[in-house]
Amino acid sequence: MAQSILNSQRVSSISLDNDEIARYSRHLIMPEVTLEGQKRIKAAKVLCIGTGGLGSPIALYLAAAGIGTLGLVDFDVVDFSNLQRQVLHGTKDVGRKKLNSARDRIRDINPNVKVVLHDCIFNSENAHEIVEPYDIVIDGTDNFPTRYLSNDICVFLKKPNIYGSIFRFDGQCTVFAPHLGGPCYRCLYPEPPPPGMVPSCAEGGVLGVLPGVIGVLQAIEAIKLICGIGDPLIGRLIHFDALKMKFREFKIRRDPNCPVCSENPTITQLIDYEEFCGIPQARAAEEAEPPVPEITPEELAQKRAKGDKFVLIDVREPFEYEIARIPGSKLIPLSSLHSRMSELDTADEIIVHCKSGYRSAQAVRELQAAGFSKLWNLQGGILAWAERIDPSIPKY
Known about the structure:
By secondary structure, the chain is of the alpha/beta class.
């Protein structure tokens, strides 16, 4: 049985009024929670980094459970593409700050919760100030620099870091807490993957209900740590496969040579996490490559209007082509380009596009290496075409 992470002196000053007793009655009649446990929940201060796919169920259920103070970190605005999984926000919130729509939704669920908004990018300069007042940090982010940053600041400040990640049909959850005897994120992942090797949800997709499962697991772990009940996921990682509907548990141990949480750490203060994850180096490498010739959506529209002869190649995947396409384009996925170059004529002017311009730039370089010279990359891809030329084409 775990012990509560909260100071009992702080809890002793907490009381519940009659409305709160009615609201939380299903908690109060549980012998594992009782009035004392609910007072601990009310006394707790939890920071959730991100109000997106994972942050939505985390914030919704912690607010409903009666967390006293809920801090939210985000800087983004609500987009239509968020609504498939980010249930903290609604259609009416599109274009609003996520923090504002989150605050309003939480207040509607439970006006007793104090919501603290941190409208900023979570970085090395502000991490200490943001994290220090809270008892628990819940990481609901989807990028490696923030994951390493949240890990390190939690190790330094001795705060439990409840980790969750999602991708397509798979999710993971654990609790990193070296001060409670468990490992930290760096014990599990000492080095970040090369930039671009692990696709984001925006690139690879995610089943909309999956973050509901993982986010709720993260919220459960927070309640357990606050109340001091059950066996927290310290030293254990849960993997969930939604397609097979199967949970698997993995033991994870502290690395005695961990640069952050070992007895002789080599990292004792926050660092530049984008540099650590190789992002500036990757950008520099991209910038060092010779630029590919580009054509704007407006210029392509003019060529079509004049009846100029050219071949328009779409290098996205077939399932993307089914979602949206530019009329007259020919689908040759980037992965098939090398084997299908014989379908193209070096004498033709060829315009290549993808979703946003990145994959098509790779295709142009591959075609250039094969001897094609009359090449253009559509700047901004089909998203720019839909935005500036043909709004009837759906954006995804």
